[in-house]
């Protein structure tokens, strides 16, 4: 009788430790997320399942063109690409991104740009026209979806405060045939 009680206690302890470890990993380090919508096409597809690396920004700041997950104003998590960092001056003209006056290539948009026949993929704008400031405010990011014509992003919701960022994501783990690391 004592042996089975002891064995039950050991199993219970192992289960409690496993649940605690899973909770800690999910809350502080990594969490799954499902892409909801078409705003990041062609890079990400609707219903792709990805891993959010929450630990990444506890160490350092996001980099331009990272794909991040953040809490949006609608009490929903969004997945978008970082275009502007704090202090950056952002402008789009002739379907080209300019950051601080320097043109940047966006190879992840090439597929969609080839398909567009009725104007630019990204409508021209300046950051000042969007948020009323010349530069991205300190502690904020300017983000955009890759599917520029059908993305609700910083052009609509404003800049994203860093405290709203959950982490970055680059690993698609489902569906199996689409498993990859995205850039």
Automatic annotation (TrEMBL):
The organism's place on the tree of life at top rank: Bacteria
Family to which the UniProt record says this protein belongs: Belongs to the peptidase S26 family.
Protein name: Signal peptidase I
InterPro entries linked to this entry: LexA/Signal_pep-like_sf (IPR036286), Pept_S26A_signal_pept_1 (IPR000223), Pept_S26A_signal_pept_1_CS (IPR019758), Pept_S26A_signal_pept_1_Lys-AS (IPR019757), Pept_S26A_signal_pept_1_Ser-AS (IPR019756), Peptidase_S26 (IPR019533)
Main location group: membrane
The reaction(s) this protein catalyses: Cleavage of hydrophobic, N-terminal signal or leader sequences from secreted and periplasmic proteins
CDD domains with a match to the protein in the record: S26_SPase_I
Residue intervals passing through the bilayer: 14-35
Membrane topology (UniProt): Single-pass type II membrane protein
Protein location: Cell membrane; Membrane
Gene Ontology molecular function: any one: signal peptidase activity
UniProt KW Transmembrane helix keyword: yes
Domain Peptidase S26: 8-174
Gene3D superfamilies: Umud Fragment, subunit A
Pfam families reported in the protein's UniProt record: Peptidase_S26
Protein species of origin: Robertmurraya beringensis
Entry keyword set: Hydrolase, Membrane, Protease, Transmembrane, Transmembrane helix
Presence of the UniProt keyword Hydrolase in the record: yes
EC number: 3.4.21.89
PROSITE patterns reported in the protein's UniProt record: SPASE_I_1, SPASE_I_2, SPASE_I_3
SUPFAM superfamilies assigned to the protein according to its UniProt record, in alphabetical order: LexA/Signal peptidase (SSF51306)
């Amino acid at each position: 009788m004592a042996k089975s009680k002891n064995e039950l206690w050991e199993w219970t302890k192992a289960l409690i430790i496993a649940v605690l470890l899973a909770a800690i990993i999910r809350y502080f380090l990594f969490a799954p997320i499902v892409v909801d919508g078409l705003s990041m096409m062609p890079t990400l597809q609707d219903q792709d399942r990805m891993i959010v690396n929450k630990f990444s920004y506890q160490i350092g700041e996001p980099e331009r063109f990272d794909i991040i997950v953040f809490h949006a104003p609608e009490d929903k998590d969004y997945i978008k690409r970082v275009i502007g960092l704090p202090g950056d001056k952002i402008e789009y003209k002739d379907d080209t991104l300019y950051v601080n006056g320097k043109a940047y290539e966006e190879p992840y948009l090439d597929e969609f740009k080839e398909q567009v026949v009725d104007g630019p993929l990204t409508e021209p704008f300046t950051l000042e026209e969007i948020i009323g400031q010349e530069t991205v405010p300190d502690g904020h990011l300017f983000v955009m979806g890759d599917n520029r014509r059908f993305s609700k992003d910083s052009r609509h919701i404003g800049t994203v405060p860093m405290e709203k960022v959950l982490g970055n994501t680059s690993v698609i783990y489902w569906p199996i045939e689409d498993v990859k690391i995205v850039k």
